[in-house]
Amino acid sequence: MIYVSEKKTAKEIILETLKKEKRPLSPKEIQKITNLNYNTIRGRLQDLKKAGLIVRTDEGWVYKEYAEKPAKKRRRKKK
Fold first, then answer.
1. Structural domain includes residue 31
2. Residue 47's CATH number
3. Which of 5, 69, 76, 78 is spaced 20 to 30 A from 63 at the CA atom?
4. What CA–CA distances, in Å, run from 69 to 4, 66, 72, 73, 79?
5. Which residues contact 5 (CB under 8 A, 6 or more apart)?
6. Tell me, what DSSP letter sits at residue 62?
7. How many domains does the chain have?
8. pTM, whole model, 2 decimals?
9. Band of the pLDDT at 54, cuts 50, 70, 90?
């Protein structure tokens, strides 16, 4: 019998971590939570960013759907 491995990729682990935490995380925080290699995390964060799945904020990396949407600027009415 052949069993398909259930092992997740580093990208999947990082994405799941960001979804679960629902807050911005630094690569060091992701490392503490996942025990993945720091340089692997940095590389996979860039891959996930290019794929449009995560966003980098001033506070850290966050799942795109949890990123704060910028407030719309109000237009002034002309007098």
1. yes
2. 1.10.10.10
3. 5
4. 40, 9, 9, 12, 30
5. none
6. E
7. 1
8. 0.76
9. very high
Residue 28 inside a domain? The answer is: yes
Residues 6 or more apart whose CB falls under 8 angstroms from that of 63 comprise: 15, 18, 19, 22, 53, 54
Distance, CA of 21 to chain centre: 10
Burial class (CB in 10 A: 0-12, 13-18, 19+), 65: exposed
Q: Which two three-digit tokens encode residue 29?
A: 């925080």
Mean pLDDT of the chain: 86
**Is 39's pLDDT higher than 90?**
yes
Contact of 35 with 10, CB cutoff 8 Å: no
Residue 4 counted as domain residue: no
Q: Which domain holds residue 45?
A: 10-62
How many whole angstroms separate alpha carbon 61 and alpha carbon 75?
Answer: 31
